[in-house]
Amino acid sequence: MQKLILKPGREKSLKRRHPWVFSGGVARVTGEPSSGDTIEVHSSSGDFLALAAYSPKSQIVARAWSWDTRDIDAGFFRERIERALRERETFLDASTTDAIRLVHGESDGLPGVVADRYADTIVMQLSSAGADRWREVIADALMEASGAARLWERSDAEVRKLEGLPAAVGPLRGQREPTRVTVNENGLAFCVDLERGHKTGFYLDQRDNRQLVRTLARGRDVLDGFCYTGGFSVNAAAGGARSVLAVDSSSEALELARQNAGLNAVSGVSWVEDDVFLLLRKLRDERRAFDLVVLDPPKFAPTAAHVAKAARAYKDISLLAFKLLRPGGILVTFSCSGGVSAELFQKIVAGSALDAGVDAQIIRHLGAAADHPVALQFPEGEYLKGLVCRVSGQ
Ligand code: SAH
Known about the structure:
Layout: E1 3-6, H1 12-15, E2 20-22, E3 26-29, E4 38-42, E5 48-54, E6 60-66, H2 74-89, E7 99-104, E8 113-118, E9 121-126, H3 129-133, H4 135-146, E10 150-155, H5 159-162, E11 168-173, E12 180-185, E13 188-193, H6 207-216, E14 221-225, H7 231-238, E15 243-248, H8 251-263, E16 269-273, H9 276-285, E17 290-295, H10 307-324, E18 325-335, H11 342-356, E19 360-367, E20 385-391
Parallel strand pairs: 1-4, 9-10, 14-15, 14-17, 15-16, 17-18
Antiparallel strand pairs: 1-3, 2-6, 4-5, 5-6, 7-8, 8-9, 10-11, 12-13, 18-20, 19-20
Helix pairs in contact: 2-4, 6-7, 9-10, 10-11
The structure holds S-adenosyl-L-homocysteine.
């Protein structure tokens, strides 16, 4: 088999079972492997380290499939996918939730492979050359293991460009129509757009946090910044909020959000198309006040290079949110930026409270739901962090 040989001293992270090989650590590659081929990775002294997918165009030049010399074939993918599905059976109640992440990339031992189940449809997202090579095999294994009726592909994440891969979107198994699917999440219905929705269609990682907001909302005036298709807003309304003001800059997302409110027969949500940064200022100037503010912005810092700018953006919105909260009010604020650590995020939020002139306490630390595990050897898998802060009462 074709081999990738590392420079001296560069075997440490693979030995700790971190699955990525960076191009800077490579001494040489034997033969002429193509993008997506399985190669053996060896240390400079010739020790076998891993079987990995070769990705010559990316800075992450190889991603480990396995730490032993088993065959990387259809049986391998079937085994990993069945394991990932089995692990999820233990903590999700299928009678109240049929929208779950089945495969979460590196943390499920399948670098570059994400698969989400939306009722009887699987949406698969492949983002590395290795995953792309095994498209048909992975699709078959997902269909077989899940018993789903059809499978859509949404391999259109930006990162594919770094791998030199074109976007691939569309039906792969089963019927094309409908392109919208209604799912059940903790007893609430949400319509998911397979073709045009963000990520694979829905932010499944926020499932538990949406339910938490449902329990916090009773009798409160709620502001949901960056509401997308209404996940937090519909939960807040279902939880008995007095009012909900939901804001997003995407008219398409808001159209679905209104539909989601209708599906759950909740009323009292005002859907506003606006830029949250501007709207928060308007609300401040109008001296509006809220008892619960949720901020779930898009990824401001995809990588460490964007951290300073992202920090300013997080500070700006959380400072304004603190100013809008009544005494005893609650801020639920998130960062899904891989480049911003939980520690830094907490510092930013603390600085915002200080500058807003409020005393606040953290009452909960939040993260992604359990179907988005983080392999201990792959800390990069941890991206979503949230804080629930309570502003002191009088
Ligand atoms: N909380 C949502 C997910 C939010 S995703 C859920 O649980 O489903 C982030 C959203 O922010 C997207 O819908 C995007 O359209 C919106 N967005 C991005 N920049 C924005 C801005 N400056 N103002 C308002 N909305 C914005």
